[in-house]
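> call design_seq(struct)
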């Protein structure tokens, strides 16, 4: 079933997939945050590398869903004035993903004894900074999409 509102059409199955992806992404970033913060019992390098690697794979899916389905374009058809913000937000995907890949790499170096043993605090700090930026990105993206949808159905006219 497709819900058609003006020029913006959203497939119901796709919406379910997006919802499931979002739920999973939030679960994984929370789990990783808890794992990295766990004290006094330190997580093992394997646990850290696996949690970060799983989150990276989910983030790749998340960004590709957003980009492949092109809801940015849909939002822009409806509300061209949002185009600059949409472009800026989309351009953040690459940098966010690369940063997470860098953190995964650090964790793998730790796992394979290629780095100092006390690297965990640095990984935790870097992860917290990354997560803050990712959450801010997601919040701005949701706000932009809501704004485009509101324009589309004429709310606020
Ligand atoms: Fe995004």
């Amino acid at each position: 079933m497709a819900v058609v509102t003006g020029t913006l059409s959203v497939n119901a199955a796709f919406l379910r997939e997006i919802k499931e992806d979002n739920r999973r992404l939030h679960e994984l970033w929370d789990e990783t945050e808890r794992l990295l913060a766990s004290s006094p019992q330190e997580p093992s390098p394997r646990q850290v590398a696996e949690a970060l690697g799983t989150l990276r794979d989910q983030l790749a899916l998340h960004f590709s869903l957003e980009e492949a389905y092109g809801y940015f374009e849909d939002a822009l058809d409806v509300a061209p004035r949002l185009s600059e913000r949409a472009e800026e937000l989309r351009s953040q995907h690459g940098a966010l993903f690369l940063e997470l890949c860098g953190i995964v790499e650090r964790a793998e170096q730790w796992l394979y004894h290629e780095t100092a043993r006390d690297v965990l605090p640095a990984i935790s700090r870097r992860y917290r900074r990354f997560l803050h930026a990712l959450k801010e990105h997601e919040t701005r993206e949701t706000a932009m999409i809501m704004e485009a949808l509101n324009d589309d159905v004429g709310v606020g006219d």
